[in-house]
Design brief:
The complex is a heterodimer of chains A (290) and B (339). With 290 residues, chain A is an alpha/beta fold. Chain A has a single domain, classed as 3-Layer(aba) Sandwich (Rossmann fold), CATH 3.40.50. In chain A, 28% of the residues lie in helices and 26% in strands. In chain A, the strands form two sheets. In chain A, strands 9-8-7-10-6-1-4-5-11 form a nine-stranded mixed beta sheet, sandwiched between helices. A two-stranded antiparallel ribbon of chain A has the order 2-3. In chain A, strand 8 and strand 9 form a beta hairpin. With 339 residues, chain B is an alpha/beta fold. Chain B folds into two domains: 196 residues, Rossmann fold; 117 residues, TPP-binding domain (Rossmann fold). In chain B, the strands form four sheets. Chain B has a seven-stranded parallel beta sheet with strand order 7-11-6-1-4-5-12, sandwiched between helices. A five-stranded parallel beta sheet of chain B has the order 15-14-16-17-18. In chain B, helix 2 links the parallel strand 4 and strand 5. At the A-B interface, helix 3, helix 4, strand 7, strand 8 and strand 9 of A face helix 3, helix 4, strand 7, strand 9 and strand 10 of B. Bound molecules: flavin-adenine dinucleotide and adenosine monophosphate. The site of adenosine monophosphate has 24 residues of chain A, from helix 1, strand 4, helix 3, strand 6 and helix 4.
């Protein structure tokens, strides 16, 4: 029996290392100055999917990402770590999507895949910090969801059991397949690249990439169909255009501001005994302490 | 119709602080919009909910009391809200940015095709001009939140879709009773009418919830330590000063990541927001994400051996020196002068 696991993964700018040069003078972010990385929690999600694959007979893991052509990088990265293949959903019609439009597009792509048993995503992406896409995809597909997963404890063809890590505790829950699971950063880290797989999938490519590489490789992809990363555009998915891109996005950004804090006029002291003693006396006198 | 709704988080019959904070904010905004403030409670044995929330100015309380609604699972709570919102057509709906609100909010927003902004740090009412469409919208909800790792602040609006939804973390808004004697209307919901039986598909097998032991948010004085404190051992100095002053100990994320302090103590954009009478920042450089969580403190003392540390800009007192030297002196002089 086949058991299809789909990981939703996103390529994101590395917002954890935003230096001064990454901010433009007008207060907007210069995305180009930030390296593009595999969204950290999506790697945790990939690891859970790969573990699931080794537990459930006939299971396969595919990665679905929506993004520009270069986002195929994270599909290859997933294959180096053990995924069987992936899908890139790309096109200018998807630009300007907020989380609802993104989840609609992803849900359309998943529907096109046929029977999908488990969808695993990261809890949230570090560029938006919204943690919305996973539950919204689940809703669009009419599937139940288990969020904040730390570990998939058990999975059969009909039932999945998951340990959840919440702000103030833990929960173990189980529910039916198909299911959407969103994974926390407290889950185990993703395994590293596997040397053999890295060699095997080095030339894995989307149609666009193959065309860019020239004719020399045509044979390669005929002989090794597993090297083809499926690339879908707007015409490959069944959709209603009004739910995509900007029109499908109810949220609008009204304003973006650089963060500025009003500086106060501070009193400067040294660690000298007297100065600290005076400060303590003053704080006691004005009832700030004591 | 077109009122402001707050989804209440309930654990063991107690309404969470985050919900009471949202009611406080919601009351103010509802007054501004001249609409009602309505609250939804879904769970089991909810007879004590009214007395907890009416003092915050709730006009209508919807009660969905059913054994199967506690503990929280996604689908039944989603159906309840979605179907209620289809009837009531709220203009605004708030939830906590908690493990429940962030599980429920996106689902509800997807079902209703209404925009949701997560983790807002400020909520206001204002106008919005869509220049392309040549339209001006009055009385929209400004959903203000940090973005891009806290490096920018974005104001988000949902011009056309309702409800306008937002989640807010615990501690970000103030909690304030409006009128201790106020009692609003209670509406008992017929759960079977809102929630199909097929929604009860998730079985909760095990559940361990801890009550937070700390009360950083409520402490009038906070002694907070950063990476510059150097070690968990040095953090003892902070605990000693805190014990002397009757304060709580907070920490920066770098200190938490380094294992000097528990995650529960983290202050900032991804931790707790505090506004104490006095905030003593020890060995904290003062990055945007930290300042976001403590800038409203009434008085700030920064202790840092770098005279150019960014935290100094927002401090009332800047002590340039090492915490190893300064803290023992503060403890000693306080003990001497407080007698
Ligand atoms: C998305 C995102 C969210 C974040 N959320 C938060 C958050 O919620 N809270 C938070 O705090 N951070 C948060 N951060 C991290 C934040 O950017 C900073 O990295 C962090 O606040 C730095 O902590 P620090 O000031 O303790 O450490 P550092 O920046 O390393 O500063 C240490 C300071 O200690 C001083 N020092 C060193 N030795 C001594 C000594 N002996 N005596 C006195 N002073 C000394 C140094 O001069 C320096 O100023 C977040 C980051 C991102 C990207
Ligand atoms: N463009 C995308 N392509 C694939 N997966 C995505 C995309 N955007 C979001 N996701 C998935 O949804 C999760 C939550 O994203 P977000 O709601 O943006 O925080 C991510 O961790 C991914 O698993």
């Amino acid at each position: 029996m086949s058991f299809k696991i789909v990981v939703l993964a996103k390529q994101v700018p590395d917002t954890r290392n935003v230096g001064k040069d990454a901010m433009k003078a007008d207060g907007t972010v210069n995305r180009a100055a930030l390296p593009a990385i595999y969204n950290p929690e999506d790697l945790n999600a990939l690891e859970q999917a790969l573990r699931l694959k080794s537990q459930v007979a006939g299971a396969t893991v595919h990665v679905l990402t929506m993004g520009p052509a270069r986002a195929a990088e994270i599909i290859r990265e997933s294959m180096y770590r053990g995924a069987d293949g992936g899908y890139l959903l790309s096109g200018r019609e998807f630009a300007g999507s907020d989380t609802l439009a993104t989840s609609y597009a992803l849900a359309c792509a998943i529907r096109k895949m046929g029977k999908v048993d488990v969808i695993v995503c990261g809890r949230q992406a570090i560029d938006g910090d919204t943690a919305q896409v996973g539950p919204q995809v689940a809703e669009k597909l009419g599937m139940p969801q288990i969020t904040y997963a730390e570990e998939i404890l058990d999975c059969t063809a009909s039932k999945i059991t998951v340990k959840r890590r919440l702000e103030r505790g833990v929960e173990v829950v189980s529910g039916p397949i198909p299911m959407v699971v969103t994974v926390n950063s407290s889950a185990p880290e993703c395994r590293p690249r596997h040397a053999k797989l890295t060699l095997k999938y080095k030339r894995a490519a989307t149609l666009t990439e193959k065309q860019d590489a020239g004719a020399d490789y045509t044979d390669l992809y005929t002989v090794h169909p597993y090297l083809t990363i499926t690339e879908w555009g707007i015409n490959d998915i069944e959709h209603d255009i009004k739910w995509l891109g900007l029109t499908g996005s109810p949220t609008k950004v009204k304003q973006i501001e650089n963060v500025v804090f009003t500086a106060k006029e501070s009193k400067r002291l040294t660690a000298n005994d007297e100065e600290i003693e005076d400060l303590m006396k003053e704080l006691i006198a004005n009832h700030t302490i004591g | 119709m077109n009122n402001l709704f707050v989804y209440l988080e309930i654990e063991d019959g107690i309404v969470g602080d985050v919900s009471l904070e949202l009611l406080t904010k919601g009351r103010t905004l509802a007054d501004q919009l001249k609409c009602k403030l309505e609250a939804v409670a879904a769970g089991y044995k909810l007879d004590k909910i009214g007395e907890q929330v009416f003092p915050f100015g709730v006009d209508t309380l919807y009660l969905a009391d059913d054994k199967r609604l506690a503990p929280y699972t996604t689908l039944p709570h989603t159906s309840l809200l979605v179907n209620l919102f289809k009837e009531e057509k709220p203009q605004i709906a708030f939830m906590g940015a908690t493990s429940i609100g962030r599980d429920l909010g996106p689902r509800v927003s997807s079902a209703l095709f209404s925009g949701l902004t997560a983790d807002c740090t400020s909520l206001e009412i204002g106008t919005y001009e869509d220049k392309k469409a040549g339209k001006v919208y009055d009385n929209l909800l400004y959903q203000i939140r940090p973005a891009f790792g806290g490096n920018i602040v974005a104001t988000i609006v949902n011009p056309d879709c309702r409800p306008q939804m937002a989640t807010v973390r615990e501690g970000v808004m103030k909690k304030e009773i409006r009128n201790a004697k106020h009692v609003g209307k209670t509406v008992i919901m017929d759960v079977a009418k809102y929630v199909p039986d097929t929604d009860f598909v998730i079985e909760v097998i095990e559940r361990h919830m801890e009550k937070s032991k700390l009360n950083i948010k409520g402490s009038p004085i906070i002694v907070s330590g950063g990476y510059g404190v150097g070690s968990a051992d040095n953090f003892k100095l902070l605990f000693e000063l805190a014990a002397t002053l009757g304060a709580e100990v907070g920490a920066s994320r770098a200190a938490v990541d380094a294992g000097f302090a528990d995650h529960e103590r983290q202050i900032g954009q991804t931790g707790t927001t505090v506004r104490p009478k006095l905030y003593i920042a020890c060995g904290i450089s003062g990055q945007i994400q930290h300042i976001a969580g403590m800038q409203e403190s009434a008085m700030i003392i920064a202790i840092n051996n770098d005279p150019k540390a960014p935290i100094n800009a927002i401090a009332d007192y800047v002590i340039t020196g090492s915490i190893e030297e300064v803290l023992p002196k503060m403890i000693k002089f306080y003990k001497k002068n407080s007698k």
